[in-house]
Each structure stands twice: as C-alpha cells, then as structure tokens.
C-alpha cells in the first residue's frame, strides 16, 4: 500500500496536470473541473465506440470472412485485440495522467517533434473530416425517410450536418456537465437499440430460426477464403471498435483517474464486445448471408423484416447513435487541441478556459474544422450507398 501511494505521489509531482483542483480554479488560475465520474467515463468510451459501425459493418466483415462462423470469430477476436489495446492505455493513463491521449503519450515518450506531428495530423486531417462525415451520416439517416425513392438533397444534408455540429459545439461550450449528460443519454439510447436487436434475435432462436448458427451451416463458405480477405474482415471489425482510446483524452477531468480510468475500460470494452457479438448473432437469425450482403444498412433491413410497422425505430436509432458520436468526438478532440496549445504546439489562445463555465471554449471552435470546399456530391452519395459512415478514421 505504501509503495503504491508513493508511486502515485511521484507521478502527481512529475505530472501536475493530473492532480488539478476539483473546484475549477487552482493557484495558477482557472482550470478544467474534475466532473467526469465512472458512469460518464463509461458513457464516453461506449458512446464513441458505438457509432454507425455495428449497424453497417457486419456486411463488410461477413463479405470478406466468407462464412457466418468465421465472421463471428472475427468479431470476438477484434474485441479481444481492442481489450489489449485498452488495457495498455489504462496503464499509460495512470502513468502519464495528462489529457490529450495519444498526443501526450507520443510527446512524452518519443519527444516533442513526434508529438507535434501527431497533433497536427489530427488537427488538419483526422478530426475535421471525422466529425464532418459523422454529421453527414446523421443527417442522411434523419432525412432519408422523407425521400424514400431517392437521395436526400445535398444542400439539406449539409445544412442539417452543420446544424448538428453547431448545436453540439454550443452544448460543449456551455457546460461540461451538459455535454456529459448528452453523452450518457445517447449512449443509453444506443444500448437500448442494440438490446432490442439482441432480444429479437433470442426470440428468433426460440422459434427455431437458427439455421445459420448450426456448425455445419455456420462454417459453410460462400467464397474461396484467402489471407487477404480475412485481413480485410479484421479491418472492418476493427472499424466498429474504433474510439476505445478516447477517454484518455480527458484524463485530467476524471474524478480519481487512477481508479476510474481502468474501471471504465474494464466495464466498457467487455460490454461492447458482448453487444457486438450477440447483435451479429441476432442478424443471422433473421437474414441469410445473401440477404445480409445485399443490405446497405444491416440493422435497418433487420428491422424491416421483424418490426413491421415499427421498422422506423432502426433508422432513428442509427441517427441518434451518430448524433451521440458527434458529441463524443467534439468533447474529446477539443481536449487534444487544449493539451497541444498548453504544450506550445498550437496557438496559446486554444489553451484558454472560460472563467465562469470552466470549458475549453477556444479549443472547441477549431473542432468544427478549417474552411474547405465541400466534397463532390458523388463522393458523399457513394459513401451513403455503401453504408460507410467513416466515423472511425
């Protein structure tokens, strides 16, 4: 016990950012409050992982795996790989208790130049495109029911996506507590939607609809297997687990990060793996591999087959899931910009905190992305037609 306490004290001395005041103001001025408890920490991890991937990625995994059985194994293995990575990040998070996630770890371990490059790649490429495409996916699922026989208009898609980004940026600028409440609510909504899918799958199994789960049928291949295709299947599965490291971007705002960071990871990753595997089991109780491969949005097709007049629940669930994904991405990426500015790798104005609200307001605004020409209409439509959200880039 004494050794652990001594190690923790030394870590706090070496990295004072991890032991800031809970009141939001320390001796040096205003600081970010420690307002994120265990439940909200789990909400950030689960909410960032579960975007639109599980609703569309099963098609890509199955297509490249070549059989239902191998596809389910890939979902389990990618979950285990994610768990290993998350455990490594849990150790890094308590050893280097700074906000900023990957950037902070790369900078402290490999030096300032490596951290600078990692930061600017995220600032210029990763997060602006990430948030834009998640928001476009949200607007597509909201507007598509109003245009059942054609694509929604490009102007409408972009306008709704912009409104989504602006609204959630305002929420994050206003209050950390509001932002975490939004994240908690939409994470609960995602889990309820996936729980509905799993329950319907259990009902189907109870009715004897488990033809594709029997071993002789589950491993019946519908294409010639190859190492390259299996690797692509793993890539598709990994896409759906992306976001598992986002809690490390807000380490300094966690209540007792030495306990809650590992606990949140231990709870969230097994939960997501369980949900993903059994959601895929549910899908194949209602759809054959051929039907699943023909679908551009697997969960929507699943709902149409089993929910009847209530099938509208699935596209709304996907829309709400992506809306929560935008919030989680804004919340965490702003802390990356804040950490970079604090270290001198971005303009110092981005390290400023609102005096009354204790939010990194100036770091949130660049998360909307630098000015750039809109993507050509065909590229957006091709993404939507393929069911690819691009959420975890």
Features:
single chain, about 400 residues, mainly alpha, Amino acid/polyamine transporter I, two-stranded antiparallel ribbon, about 0% strand, globular, disordered N terminus, disordered C terminus, membrane
Can you lay out the helices and strands and say which pair or pack?
Elements: H1 2-14, E1 25-26, E2 29-30, H2 38-49, H3 53-65, H4 68-95, H5 102-110, H6 112-143, H7 154-174, H8 176-206, H9 215-218, H10 227-241, H11 257-286, H12 289-294, H13 298-306, H14 313-342, H15 361-364, H16 377-386
Antiparallel strand pairs: 1-2
Helix pairs in contact: 2-8, 2-11, 2-14, 3-4, 3-10, 4-10, 4-11, 5-6, 6-7, 6-14, 7-14, 8-11, 8-14, 13-14
Transmembrane segments: 36-56, 68-89, 109-127, 155-173, 185-206, 226-244, 265-286, 306-326
Family: Belongs to the amino acid-polyamine-organocation (APC) superfamily. L-type amino acid transporter (LAT) (TC 2.A.3.8) family.
Region (Disordered): 1-29, 372-393
């Amino acid at each position: 016990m004494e050794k652990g306490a001594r190690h923790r004290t030394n870590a706090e001395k070496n990295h004072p950012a991890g032991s800031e005041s809970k009141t939001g103001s320390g001796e040096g001025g205003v600081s970010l409050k420690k307002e994120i408890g265990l439940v909200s920490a789990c909400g950030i991890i689960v909410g960032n992982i579960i975007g639109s991937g599980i609703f569309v990625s099963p098609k890509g995994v199955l297509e490249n795996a070549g059989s239902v059985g191998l596809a389910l194994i890939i979902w389990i293995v990618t979950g285990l790989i994610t768990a290993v990575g998350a455990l490594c990040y849990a150790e890094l998070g308590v050893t280097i208790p700074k906000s900023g996630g990957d950037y902070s770890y790369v900078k402290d371990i490999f030096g300032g130049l490596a951290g600078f490059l990692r930061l600017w790649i995220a600032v210029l490429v990763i997060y602006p495109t990430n948030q834009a495409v998640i928001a476009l996916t949200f607007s597509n699922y909201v507007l598509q029911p109003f245009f059942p026989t054609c694509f929604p208009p490009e102007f409408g898609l972009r306008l709704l996506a912009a409104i989504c980004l602006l609204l959630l940026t305002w929420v994050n600028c206003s209050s950390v507590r509001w932002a975490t409440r939004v994240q908690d609510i939409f994470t609960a909504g995602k889990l309820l939607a996936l729980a509905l899918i799993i329950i319907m799958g259990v009902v189907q199994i109870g009715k004897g609809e488990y033809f594709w789960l029997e071993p002789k049928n589950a491993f019946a291949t519908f294409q010639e297997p190859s190492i390259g295709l299996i690797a692509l299947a793993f890539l598709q599965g990994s896409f759906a687990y992306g976001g598992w490291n986002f809690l490390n971007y807000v380490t300094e705002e966690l209540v007792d990060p030495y306990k809650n960071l590992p606990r949140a990871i231990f709870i969230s990753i097994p939960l997501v793996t369980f949900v993903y595997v059994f959601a895929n089991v549910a899908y194949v109780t209602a759809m054959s591999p051929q039907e699943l491969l023909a679908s551009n949005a697997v969960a929507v097709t699943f709902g149409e087959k089993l929910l009847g007049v209530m099938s509208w629940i699935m596209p709304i669930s996907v829309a709400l899931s992506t809306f929560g994904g935008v919030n989680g991405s804004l919340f965490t990426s702003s802390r990356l910009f804040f950490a970079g500015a604090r270290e001198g790798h971005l303009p110092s104005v981005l390290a400023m905190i609102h005096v009354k609200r204790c939010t990194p307001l100036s770091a949130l605004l660049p998360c909307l992305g630098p000015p750039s020409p809109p993507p050509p209409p065909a590229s957006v439509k091709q993404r939507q037609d393929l069911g690819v959200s691009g959420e975890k880039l």
